[in-house]
Write a sequence for this structure.
């Protein structure tokens, strides 16, 4: 084992040594007991060949501090690379098999030395001169050790903007807050990083892969517990309303009766079909018109008055305890249904490699304690919902309604800061090595590092220009279509000039190189920017899909507006599950339109079968329902009393024709206009034919 020299011997040895020998090594030592920093070195000319001990000189962040630390066995450390680019630990090797000199950027790894000391104390002028010579020699050694493919070409358009006029003499950008960014990218020939090894097979989870029909896929998200909650509390509202209006007993008509589960499904089906025909906000009188201008499927499923009544009475929570719950939860009227829906989304699907985190605005102009105004959105006024969306399939993995500041002492009181919001939204994919693409509202250095270290998730996002960890060199005016890169071991930033007097800043923990996308032509966009452009619009696409066939109707009740949004998301997620489970061709046109149409018809089918058998409805209506279902109309029951006058079953109700005659086969009452006289012999011949 080598011995450690005294301070005077150390300084003398280093000053007399010109670092030209191949058998020398420089190591750093921290004295933990005396709060004293010194630089130690020793000539390893007589070290036994079997000892494989290496000493690394580590430099950490800051301009006024110099830190040193001795690390052994650094050659056994693991370094990794990522999916999109190349990265690794920058290392400078010099010497023979007996000794080596290596450098390691401790600032980029967040390593904390055991002792800290500033350049103003505990160091003699000789020590400072030695440190200057060591760092200068370190830069020269690192440049000489780079492979030809990894070295900078000053004429190359990819990395030339990352170097100053003095080449490698100043290879670090220092930000306003002291953050160091290297100008040279890390090594490329390294192993894959742990955060880039995707865990969990993407797609529909195994227990839901047997869902093959449109209705089965939809019921995964609007599940039985959600239907039970809505059915129970809607009937509570109907009963209470009927009592307050004294509509009981004989005064109660079928329009104001309690709702069945079949009617609830039919209501949701009609909402989806109205969105399919772009009639979500159209007057219902036009949809139920009988003059040939309406849509017949609405009239065959339920009456217009019943449809409006159910929408009016639709409830998602207990109305008797709502006032108490609203004291500590602004989302109380729909909290239970919303959490059920989000849980169903997370339990049924595993996202692909790339996800998008963004916000969407559900249009609403009524009274709501957390209504937002966002002029850049199409609706401008509405309810803001944060969404985490799979960028490949546009499956909504997580949703959160922005409720503002919750009441004091509320269990739902959470921080609305972007950093805390991001951590809540990515919990469903934590540790799965996915990439999250975010805009400049969510992206920050602290968030990027925490997601990488604690959740094994990479981040690609834009940055706001006022961030203190962006070096001033990145903000200076440059030529159009030029890029400037800054590297750490785990994070990379880039400044790009798309047009004069405008700069775009991006941060990525997935890219670790300065590659320019050749497909961008003269624009010379970095690969980080083209990747961001390709993955940034997941939530925007979902919002566009929802608005294309929107089920929302005009309402002054914000819980109902949120539920309409859940139906839109359920339709999109159900289509994704249906396509993956059935292997549907993605290139087929009008695929979503066909899916919503078949889903809506499946939801109303049960209610239409009930109406077909309801003899209280006009026979012509029941006949049209039977034709729509493709089933025969069942014959009426024989209920005619002998010698009694009954209304003709074929005449419209407005004529009110009554007759004592009836059909000999089905006993349906008939007037003379709809009767045919035939003798008994001819009737027998017809039966025997």
């Amino acid at each position: 084992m080598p011995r450690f020299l005294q301070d005077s011997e150390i300084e003398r040895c280093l000053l007399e040594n010109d670092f030209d020998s191949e058998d020398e090594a420089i190591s750093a030592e921290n004295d933990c007991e005396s709060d004293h920093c010194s630089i130690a070195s020793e000539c390893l000319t007589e070290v036994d060949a079997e000892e494989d001990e290496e000493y690394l000189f580590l430099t950490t962040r800051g301009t006024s501090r110099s830190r040193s630390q001795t690390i052994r066995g650094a050659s056994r450390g693991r370094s990794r690379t990522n999916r999109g680019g190349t990265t690794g630990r920058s290392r400078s090797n010099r010497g023979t098999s007996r000794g080596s000199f290596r450098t390691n950027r401790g600032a980029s790894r967040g390593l904390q030395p055991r002792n800290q000391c500033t350049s103003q104390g505990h160091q003699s002028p000789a020590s400072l001169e030695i440190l200057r010579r060591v760092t200068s020699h370190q830069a020269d050694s690192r440049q000489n050790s780079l492979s030809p493919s990894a070295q900078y070409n000053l004429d190359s358009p990819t990395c030339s903007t990352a170097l100053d006029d003095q080449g490698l003499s100043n290879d670090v950008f220092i930000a306003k807050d002291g953050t160091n960014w290297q100008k040279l990218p890390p090594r490329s020939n390294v192993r894959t990083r742990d955060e880039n090894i995707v865990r969990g097979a993407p797609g529909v989870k195994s227990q839901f892969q047997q869902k093959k029909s449109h209705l089965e896929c939809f019921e995964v998200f609007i599940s039985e517990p959600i239907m039970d909650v809505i059915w129970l509390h809607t009937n509570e509202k109907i009963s209470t309303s009927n009592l307050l209006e004294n509509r009981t007993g004989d005064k109660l008509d079928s329009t104001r009766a309690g709702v069945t589960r079949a009617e609830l499904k039919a209501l949701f089906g009609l909402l989806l079909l109205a969105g399919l025909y772009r009639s979500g906000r159209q007057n219902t009188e036009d949809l139920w018109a009988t003059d040939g201008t309406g849509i017949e499927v609405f009239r065959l499923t339920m009456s217009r008055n019943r449809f409006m009544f159910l929408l009016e009475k639709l409830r998602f929570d207990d109305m008797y305890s709502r006032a108490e719950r609203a004291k500590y939860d602004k989302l109380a009227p729909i909290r239970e249904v919303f959490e059920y829906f989000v849980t169903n989304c997370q339990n049924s699907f595993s996202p692909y490699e790339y996800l998008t985190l963004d916000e969407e605005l559900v249009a609403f102009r009524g009274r709501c304690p957390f209504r937002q105004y966002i002029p850049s959105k199409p609706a401008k006024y509405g309810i803001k919902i944060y969404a985490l969306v799979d960028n490949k399939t546009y499956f909504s993995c997580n949703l959160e309604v922005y409720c503002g500041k919750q009441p004091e002492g509320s269990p739902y009181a959470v921080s609305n800061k972007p950093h805390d919001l991001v951590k809540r939204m990515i919990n469903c994919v934590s540790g799965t090595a996915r990439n999250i693409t975010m805009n400049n509202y969510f992206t920050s250095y602290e968030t990027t590092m925490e997601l990488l270290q604690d959740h094994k998730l990479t981040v690609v996002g834009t940055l706001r220009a006022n961030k203190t960890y962006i070096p001033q060199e990145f903000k200076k005016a440059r030529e159009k279509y030029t890029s400037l890169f800054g590297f750490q071991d785990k994070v990379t930033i880039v400044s790009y000039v798309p047009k004069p007097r405008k700069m775009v800043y991006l941060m990525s923990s997935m890219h670790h190189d300065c590659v320019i996308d050749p497909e961008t032509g003269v624009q010379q966009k970095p690969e980080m920017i083209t990747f961001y452009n390709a993955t940034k619009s997941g939530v925007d696409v979902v919002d566009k899909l929802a608005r294309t066939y929107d089920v929302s109707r005009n309402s002054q009740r914000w819980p109902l507006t949120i539920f309409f949004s859940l139906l839109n998301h359920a339709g999109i997620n159900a289509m994704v599950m249906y396509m993956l489970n059935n292997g549907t061709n993605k290139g087929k046109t009008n695929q979503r339109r066909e899916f919503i149409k078949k889903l809506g018809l499946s939801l109303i089918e049960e209610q239409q079968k009930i109406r077909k058998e309801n003899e209280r409805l006009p026979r012509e209506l029941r006949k049209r329902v039977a034709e729509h279902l493709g089933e025969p109309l069942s014959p009426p029951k024989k209920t005619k009393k002998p010698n009694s006058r009954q209304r003709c079953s074929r005449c419209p109700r407005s004529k009110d024709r009554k007759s004592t005659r009836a059909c000999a086969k089905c006993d349906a009452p008939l007037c003379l206009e709809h009767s045919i006289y035939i003798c008994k012999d001819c009737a027998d011949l017809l039966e025997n034919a």
In short: The longest helix spans residues 558-582. The two ends are 115 Å apart (CA to CA). The chain has 19 helices and 21 strands.
